[in-house]
Amino acid sequence: MNFFKRWLRFTLIFILVTSVFSQKKDDLNVVDKVKSYPKEIILNHNILVEGYFQFIDSLVLKYDSITPYILTEHLLVRHNPWILDTLQNTDYYRMKARDSFVYNQKKMIVLPQGNTIKFPDSKTAESLQKVFNKTTVDINIPEFKLRIYQDSVKLFECLVRVGRNEKKYLEMSGREEDLRTRTGAGMIVGYNKNPRYANPANNHNYKVTRRDDDKVTLVPQIPFIETELNGIRYGQLIHPTTNPETLGKAYSNGCIGIKEADAWVIYYYAPIKTKINIRYDLKVIDANGEVKILKDIYGYQ
């Protein structure tokens, strides 16, 4: 009997020690997993605009499974603001102001060799995600303004162009369309990172564009942003124009046109599911706090 008791005591102690050791080993594995993603990476070669999204997507794919949060390109770029600055500076007109003519924006270096891309820690990633969740894109058509808010705090503002006040047959849709930009509340529902440039009137693709300075360049690679309003996808995009002289005017076929540099900001400030409100308010408050009545460009009132 004493032998049996000693055996039973030894067995229980062995099971307990083994269990504790196993638990500690599992804890170490968890710690190792959290520590296994890098705090930063150093670029060992130049990344051009044409390969930018492929590179960023590859980083997200490689490290998302080992970061303690859901890694996205938006988190990565917002944590590395120099990337957004560099993307903005591929704008043709910004380069022109520096006495540099850019024929093919896709061949510009956007992530230079030797630069560092840092990964956010869990606390920073959570904070950035909360910012995204509280972000709203607001567009007032007769004011020709797009604003980005975090709650009630304005983060960004830019000039836009909107749809013309006319109806026209568009080969792209195969019917006559009201070209006025539609109003409504909804969200960002998609992106086209390598968009097709086409004339909606005849549905013909074009590879080159004539700039405001009358010079011809290849079309740039900048994301087009797809919207949904009142539960309907009208095909009404937010996208860059290569002719910023048209901003502040009713000029487009219904889409919202913006500067090339501004397009990058909107893209990285407004991930998919970001709320958007497109309105038609003629009464606004100007910078001096005074009421201003805007021109009724669509004749609604």
- Helical element count? 7
Provide the CATH architecture of the largest domain.
Beta Barrel
> CATH homologous superfamily of the largest domain - what is it?
L,D-transpeptidase catalytic domain-like
| Order of H and E elements | HEEHHHHEEHEEEEEEEEEEEEEEEHEEE
What is the strand arrangement across the widest sheet? 7-6-5-20-11-16-17-19
Strand content: 25-35%
Contiguous uncertain segments of 5+ residues: 15-34
Mean pLDDT: 89
Structural class: alpha+beta
Give Rg in angstroms. Answer: 26 Å
* CATH class type of the largest domain: Mainly Beta
What is the 3D shape?
A: globular
Ends distance: 100 Å
Number of domains: 2
Count of β-strands = 22
CATH fold field value of the largest domain: L,D-transpeptidase catalytic domain-like
Describe the structure.
Residues 135-279 form the L,D-TPase catalytic domain. This is L,D-transpeptidase. Belongs to the YkuD family. InterPro entries: LD-transpeptidase, LD_TPept_cat_dom, Transpep_catalytic_dom. One of its GO terms (molecular function) is peptidoglycan L,D-transpeptidase activity. This protein has 301 residues and is α+β, with helices and mostly antiparallel strands. The longest helix is centred in the first third of the chain and has 34 residues, at 2-35. The protein is globular, with a radius of gyration of 26 Å. The chain has two domains: 40-125, no CATH class; 134-293, Beta Barrel (L,D-transpeptidase catalytic domain-like). The strands form eight sheets. It has an eight-stranded mixed β-sheet. Mean pLDDT is 89; it is low at 15-34. The protein has helices spanning 2-35, 49-63, 73-79, 81-88, 92-97, 122-133, 260-269, and strands at 40-42, 47-48, 109-111, 116-118, 135-140, 145-150, 153-159, 162-163, 167-170, 175-178, 184-192, 198-199, 204-205, 208-210, 216-218, 224-229, 237-240, 250-252, 256-258, 275-279, 283-285, 291-293.
